[in-house]
Every structure is written in structure tokens, then in C-alpha cells.
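Exam review. A common question shows you a sequence with its C-alpha cells and asks you to describe the fold in words. Practice with the pair below. Do the first one on your own.
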Amino acid sequence: MLDVAIIGGGICGLTTAIALERRGTEPRIYEAATEYRPVGAGILLHTNAMLVFDRLGLADRIRDAGVALDGGEIRSPAGRVLKRLDLSGVERAAFGHGYVAIHRAALQRVLLDALETEVQTGMACTAVESTAPLIATLADGTTIEPDVLVGADGIDSTVREAIVPGVSRRRLESVVYRAVVSVDLSPPYRSRGFQCWGVGTYTGGAPIDTGRVYWFGTAPEPLTPESADPAAKLAAIREHFGGYPEPIPSIVAALEPGDVFRSGLADVPRLERWRRGSVVLAGDAAHALLPFGGQGAAQGIEDAIVLAHELTAHDEPAAAFDSYEGTRKPRADRVHDEARRMGWLATRQSSLGARVRNLGVRVLPRRLFDRIRRRRFAETPLPKATRAE
């Protein structure tokens, strides 16, 4: 049995570990955080992510912990519907799964409960000294020499330095505000995702459980200095987003000072390779995406099941890595580029550009729009199931 060490106990790392366990391998997992806390924002799991979780026997638990959405809509700032998503008529009809909106901490808890291996927390990887033979150092000075090291340690991956040195974040000229808000939505929005595409602003969200909503909103630049007091920050957010169609005004009106956190938007450029020696990358370490199109977590989840399959289907890690990268990298690169283009479109600061963009979305034929969605999910890589799966 291969000795597999996973660096990073986030969604991708945990899913990879579960997939390996389902195939008879007992991985070691090292997480930088000292403990798992119920913090963070929401996450929208698209159909391809749910297909993987279905294969791993976790789809029902994830639906129960979140909200299975009936549909979604994209609107203009004036409230005009640009596109509706009929998740029952397309995704569920074709694949049996739609989208599930869930708090990131709730998803993490489902994964941790499904995992037999105990995650070793407070154990960041500080360096990969060598890829062949494999030697890595952890935060407490421990040296590990597994057969395989999986770098699932996020956008600022330390493991990635051993494969493609010098890669850093590539920023988009926008910031994003995120929050989980306690608010009583009107009935139409209690099981529906919603977006609004404005001038330089892309805002929306979805219900993640009874009485709570995940909300996000971008702005070309910070609405207030970081040093501003919480009341001033909230006032600026309400002023900037309060004029958008419902349910956005109701959500921002319900915000509390501790609800909102702000961050920059960034991805990483396409990588030349995902592996070197006995080290391989997965998730954001390999292909961090801009958060447009909702595929960031889903692509890491796809990585997880494919990598676990290849590691247990081949006698040598090199052959497993070749097959994994050949299967995953072309698809992840396409999705990466799509997210970059969509981010560029969604944050247009030109009024004319925003109007042209919204018109293009509105006149896109429904049949073509649905075909694009079906093709995306039909290409979900699902290796042959094992008995345990």
C-alpha cells in the first residue's frame, strides 16, 4: 500500500483522503490551522461536485446540511431578468443532481465525519526539500518521507514551489465582500440562487440553511479604508449595494458589523506541470480560479476522485501522475480560462460595456445556454466505482 501524505485539510484535501480511504489506502493529512472552526462563508456546489460526492456516498448528507436549490436567476441592476436557471429541468433531469448551497464549515464537518483518518492540525508544510527522493519538513520540525506527497495547500501553496517555483497570485482589479447573514428571505428566494450584474459590481448569493444566506458583492476598489470604523464600513456597503434588486437590499440591511469580510480577487496563472518526482498538486495549489462561474471548489473535488483512483490503479506514482494530469489538467485549464474571462466581464467598469454584456446574456438562446450547462457536467470525470463507493 502506498504511503500517501496530503498537505492541506481543506475541501480538496479532505475529499482526496476520503476517496483514497474508499479505495483501501490510509492517507496521512497535515493541516496548517490549529483547529477547525465554524467560520468562513458559503459555497455553491455545482452538479459536477455533487456527482463526485454521490460517488463517495456523501451527496445526501451534504444536501441535508445545506439547501438544494430549485433554480437561479441573473438580473440587471434595474431588475430585468437576463437568464433563469431551471435546475430541475436541466441538471437534475440529466444527472440527478442540481446545485447545493452550504456553509463552508458545514461541508467541512460532513467531510471530517466521513473520514476515518485523523487530521493532524497545526502541521503546515514549510518546505519540500527534495522530490525524488521525497523529503518534506513540517512546522514543528518533523521530516516526512512518504511515497507520495499531495499538495492541496491552497492558492499560496508551499508544495507548489517544489514543482513550479516562483508562481504567485495574479490579482484582478476588484475586491469582494462576503458575509453569512441571518435574514428572512421572501418565499421566492428561499430555495433559489440569485445574481445581479451591474457596472463594476457583481453581487448575489443563495440560502445556505433555514434563516441564513450567503451573500457576496464585488466593487472596483475598497468602499472604505481598512482603518474605517465598523459602522462606516457597513454604511458604505449599504449605500453601494442597497439600490440593487431584491433580495440584495434586504440582505445588506440585515448585515451586522462582524458579518462581513473583504478580500482581493486573485487566481494563479496556468501551470506548466502539476507534478515532479513523487510530489503532485491538487485543488487551488494546482489551478486556483477566480470565483466567477462557481467552479473553484468543484474542480478541486474532481481532482480528488481522479487522483485517488489513479494512485490506487497504478503500481508506480509516475504512471498515476501522468494519467491524473492527462485527465484533469486540460479540463481544469479550460475552466480556469473561462473564470478569468467571466471575471473580466463581470467587473466591467464601463456603463456601455456592462449594457452590452447584459444584452448578450439576455439574448443568448435558451437552448444554447442549457446545452453549455449539460456539456460542462457531462464531462465530469468519474472513475469506475469500487465496492466501497
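Now try the second one, then compare your answer with the model answer below.
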Amino acid sequence: MSHLDNIPSTPGKFKMEKSPYINRLRLHSSLAKLTFWSFVFLGLILIFFFRSPSSNPLPSDLSRRSLRTSSWGGPAWEKRVRSSARVRARNGISVLVTGAAGFVGTHVSAALKRRGDGVLGLDNFNDYYDPSLKRARQALLERSGIFIVEGDINDVALLKKLFEVVAFTHVMHLAAQAGVRYAMENPGSYVHSNIAGFVSLLEVCKSANPQPAIVWASSSSVYGLNTKVPFSEKDRTDQPASLYAATKKAGEEIAHTYNHIYGLSLTGLRFFTVYGPWGRPDMAYFFFTKDILKGKSITIFEAADHGTVARDFTYIDDIVKGCLASLDTAEKSTGSGGKKKGSAQLRVFNLGNTSPVPVSDLVSILERHLKVKAKKNIMKLPRNGDVPFTHANISSAQRELGYKPTTDLQTGLKKFVRWYLSYYSGGKKASG
């Protein structure tokens, strides 16, 4: 297609040196080639999404990315949706919580319900980690009167139906494909959930009347490679260290676009290593506990030159306070039916504990609470997107949200261990 390079960018200045017939042949040839390569690229994209490499069996992989929406609709289903989303407190809000059966989603949903807000959950119950833990969280929420609709955030028809049944004032968007390392095995699932899923939700929200205010979970991982310590929301975040971080950074840029064009009120929350009861089994504190109790060796990573790997561990109750404060201070969206009527609120906050702790100290605390000595295997931090150090600057959240974490790692891990031993005691899972 090098012959196209001779066509000037300014129309009307091209002197035809060949006959019109020859030029028409070249034009047709170029269009044919352009069409051919367009189909080739489209094919490659489809192959990437539907056959992305994964160490897991194909059925499991598809269950993570497909629209596994259970049957929905009908009078009985709509009645459950309305009942769950009904506001019971004066000046309460009605919130759609995506990823409601997840770790943070469960705690946020329960906290909203306790204070009288209307809460409806949405979750696809994928098998990235043990779905039975998600089902147990679901049962916990159902006892509080919270209904979790089983469906995918990319199912636009379902999302539209939910907004038809309930005029949500707020959305707490926590549905996402989590985990830094798994992104190297199954990149397509991150694009599907963290980018396409977010866009699907925003598309429905922009057309809702009234538009809801949206709070969504970003990640401390967006800070990537070139960031000052402690991490500030003003730092550059254009060099993410992992695909997971890149999808979360893309979400922040997409949010800016929808805020600018459609007047959606958007607040992003960058979480820093959240831990606590009902947590995620893929997190270090969780599988360390499991392996220490089983007498298995645990791997502790160290940075280059025997440097310390440290994390700004944040207890779940502190994260919940930040989430609720973000919802309470979110201004109304300014659009209606997809048309912007004025500038809208756009914010990003760090939610951390401001006290980075070496992972080796985390293990020592677990040993004390479990009363078991860990078998340790020290290894160099692999080049898989993990960063050696995280530390949150929370001054903006303190100033605008009144955010103030109060739980230290010693106290938080004691509560987690108590829950873990209760939930998994004797191989039987307790209900609370």
C-alpha cells in the first residue's frame, strides 16, 4: 500500500499523471486490500478474545468470560428486585452493587442495608476462585434481605431491565477480573470484565433517566513504574506494570470521557491491598494462612538486592467507610437520556492505611495468631507485574471524605484468623 503515500493530505492539489482508468483500478485495488486487512485484524481480535491462552481447561475459561446470565424477568423476579432495592431510611439512597458476591461487594452491600439504603446486587459468580465462597457470601446477604441477580455486566439487556424496574440513585461498581498474575495466563478475561464491562455499565447509566452517580473500584496497581512514594492521585500513572493495572488505568480514562461527554458523576477509588474476613483466597494473607495450617511451605518474595517487599494493607471495615463516604458525597449526574446539561463531578481517591508493612512481618503476625511456625521459602520477586512497594497518600480522601483508617494489621489479622478458623473448622464451613 506504499503507493497511497503519494496522495497529499490537502485535497485538490494532486496532479493526475496517469489516465483516469488506471487510477480507478488502483483505487479499487487499494479498497480491496484495505477491506481484506480489516477482516484479518477483526479475525485476530476475535481469536484473542475467544481463544486467549490459559492454563485452565476451556470450559472454566469460557465460564469466566461469557454472559452466563441465569433466567431473569417476570413478576416474581421483579418483585424481589424492587423489595431488595427499596429504601427504608429517611434520605436513603438506592444502590446497584455490581460484584456484590465479591469480597468488598459483600461488605459494602451489608453496610448499606444496615443503615436503611436500598441495595440490589449483581454478580456472575465466575470461578476465578472457589465459587462456594461467593455462594456463602450470597447466603449471608440474602438473610439481610439483599437479592443478588446472577448475571454479567456485559449483558446490556439485563442492565437496562434492572434500571427499568428500579430508578437507582447510585451505582457501586465493584465487578472486575482481579489478580495481577492471572492476567499473564488469561488476558482476555481482563479486557472483557474491566474494560468492556465498565463501558457496558456506563452506556446504560448514561441513557438512564435520571442518571445515577457512579462510584467504581480502580486499583493501587495503576501507579505502576514511575511513581513517587507515597503514591498520590496527582502522580503520573501512564506506565502500568501489568495488564491488570493497564485495564484499571483504561477504566479511569474511560470514566473521564463519559463524564465529559454525558455528564455522568463518577468517583474512582484506588484500593490498597484490602484484607479481612470473607476475603479473597488468591490474596497472600489468605493462602499463607491456609498453607501454614497445613504445614506447607510458603513463598515470601524479596525485591532486588534482597530488598523488602511491603504492602499498604487496608482492613475491609476501613475500605467500607471510604466507599460509603464516596457514595454520600457523590453529586448528581447532570445528563438525562444521554444528553449532558452541565459539568459533572469527577474524582479519584486513594483508600489505604498509610502504613506499609513488610510481607515478612505479615507472616510473623499470622504465626502468632495461628500458633504455628511457618515453613518459609525466600525467592526473588518475579517479573510478572507485581511491584515491590505500595504506600498510599490519603490526604485527598481525608479532606473530602473524612476518611480515616483505624485498624492496624495486628488487629485486622486477628479478626481474619478468627473468621477463617470458624469458616473452615473441621472442614465444615460455618455460616457467619
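Model answer, second protein: The first helix runs from residue 20 to 50. The radius of gyration is 24 Å. Full marks require stating both points clearly.
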